[in-house]
Design brief:
It is a single chain. The C terminus is likely disordered. The chain has a two-stranded antiparallel sheet. It has a two-stranded antiparallel sheet with strand order 3-4. With 519 residues, it is mostly helical. The chain is built from 22 helices and four strands. The chain is globular, with a radius of gyration of 23 Å.
């Protein structure tokens, strides 16, 4: 009893400390106004408009260069002599492990329970637009990265905002934006990449072990679960990006395949409901029932949850992608486009269809205001309709998703930390200790409070980052031209040595190769 008492006291103190901060940030970041009964949040539209602008500016790159992106990620153009730490495939899996997580499982359930099935349609659209934004920021991440003497790499908005704006003759603006981006991504890492993952993975574990009323549903059980996750996390993040790359390259493909297969299994068990489910998603996207604000209400919810899920425009993914082995930044930009496609277009859609065809009553109850039904429970119960034992497998997937996201975001957040506090051993150790300590308390905060805090820092990070993307987009267009020329020449049979020799001759004033247009 004494143990339970001190654990409850810890939980109460943490909640009392977080509540006023969350309320303050929410009032500022999610300032809104009403249009036709819908609550419009300008901060959400900021991300969506960026995706639309970059889609048009780069001529629908996410469609035109999808095949090239697949060829690059499967290693067709790899050169082991290129600088960097990990392969294109490892960089992609590391970044995907930071986005393919509980946002795809619990986040989709939250979107549907608040915005109706129609929110799924807008999530998919936001994911497609986010592919263009991800292409821009990850190309810049590699273009302006720093390769240290020990072979490790630092990249991300902290580097490309500072260096890119210096090239434009605005060094102070770049330093301010880089500093703000580092602060906001760091705090999103603590709340979204750490606390939220531990919170929702524990929710699934406690649901399966003790039917939501066992040891893991107590604050003491939550603390012990957090300690176990933190210990495992520490063992991986101490090894740095190479260790994370090896771990995620093994975990992520298997997890994603297992989860999509599980969704397909549930859908097949309810195959006669699929046409109606798809019809419901499309119909309610444009004429939602019971959603405040109608179409705009469903749209805003869908875009908000998609932004949380794929993080396009936030500046987090370039930190992982910048560690890739390449001399041509836009190769990784093209690979990065696959990330929102996998995360939002494929996996979020699978989750949504699973919930709609199998679990209508539960998400409708959540929409009606039953706050006791959390995000992960809606998805878990949908799986249980197909096979009663399947939520146990989902529990394993959820824990692995949460763990892979936790270690990847540990890397992201460490890069932000060292940008702010230096790369000394003491600084890095202080971060790793704080990261693992925060994981312990993740299960003690209410779900929606965590979502609110994570969303606030995510969108603040997007403000600083996307300002920079607009100014630096011409740099990305030039890099895209270089890569398209490189791909054309490699496909024509030229070796890397021949291409580099020809490029060097051209730079020295010799016969220049024709550069393919990026238009």
């Amino acid at each position: 009893m004494a143990d339970t008492t001190w654990a409850d006291t810890v939980a109460e103190n943490i909640n009392e400390a977080v509540d006023p901060v969350a309320s303050f940030l929410g009032d500022i970041v999610f300032w809104s106004f009403e249009v036709g009964g819908a609550t419009i949040m300008p901060i959400v539209l900021w991300l969506v408009i960026a995706g639309l602008v970059f889609t048009v500016y780069f001529g629908f790159a996410q469609i035109r260069y999808f095949r090239q992106a697949l060829n690059i990620v499967r290693g067709k153009y790899d050169n082991p002599k290129d600088p960097g730490e990990v392969s294109h495939f490892q960089a992609l899996t590391s970044a995907v492990s930071g986005t393919v997580g509980l946002g795809n499982i619990a986040g989709v359930a939250i979107a549907i329970s608040i915005g109706g099935p129609g929110a799924t349609f807008w999530m998919i659209l936001c994911g497609l637009l986010g592919m263009a934004t991800k292409f821009v920021e990850c190309t810049l991440g590699v273009r302006y990265r720093e390769v240290h003497e020990d072979g490790t790499v630092s990249g991300g908005p902290m580097q490309y905002l500072r260096k890119g704006f210096a090239e434009l003759g605005k060094p102070m603006t770049g330093k301010i934006l880089a500093g703000l981006s580092a602060v906001f991504v760091l705090f999103f890492g603590y709340f979204g990449g750490n606390l939220f993952q531990v919170n929702q993975s524990l929710a699934q574990v406690s649901t399966r072990v003790g039917d939501g009323d066992g040891f893991f549903s107590t604050n003491l059980g939550a603390i012990i679960y957090g300690l176990a996750i933190a210990t495992l996390c520490a063992l991986v993040i101490i090894g740095g990006m190479k260790s994370i790359g090896r771990t995620t390259a093994r975990l992520v493909p298997g997890m994603a395949i297992m989860y999509v297969a599980a969704c397909l299994l549930v859908i097949l068990f309810n195959v006669t409901e699929v046409p109606a489910a798809i019809g419901t998603i499309v119909t309610e996207a444009f004429a939602p029932e019971g959603v405040a604000g109608g179409v705009l209400g469903a749209l805003i919810v869908g875009f908000q949850r998609a932004a949380f899920s794929n993080e396009a425009g936030v500046g987090s993914a370039p930190i992982a992608h910048s560690a890739v082995k390449t001399k041509r930044p836009a190769t990784e930009g093209l690979v990065a486009m696959l990330e929102p496609f996998i995360d939002t277009v494929v996996i979020c859609t699978m989750t949504a269809l699973t919930i709609v065809v199998a679990n209508g009553e539960l998400y409708q109850a959540r929409r009606a205001g039953d706050d006791s039904i959390n995000g992960i429970a809606i998805t878990s119960d949908a799986f249980e309709t197909a096979l009663p034992w399947f939520p146990w497998l989902l529990t394993l997937a959820v824990v692995l998703f949460a763990f892979s996201t936790l270690i990847t975001w540990g890397y992201y957040s460490q890069k932000c930390w060292t940008h702010l506090f230096g790369r000394s051993r003491t600084s890095e150790l202080a971060f790793k200790v704080s990261w693992c300590a925060v994981a312990v308390i993740g299960a003690l905060l209410p779900l929606m409070r965590l979502v609110d805090m994570a969303d606030a820092f995510l969108f603040l990070a997007a403000v600083a980052n996307i300002i920079g993307l607009y100014f630096l987009a011409p740099v990305v267009k030039r890099e895209l031209g270089r890569v398209l020329d490189y791909v054309r020449r490699k496909d024509a049979g030229e070796t890397d040595e021949e291409i580099e020799a020809a490029d060097a001759a051209a730079a020295a004033g010799g016969p220049a190769s024709k550069v393919a247009s990026a238009e």
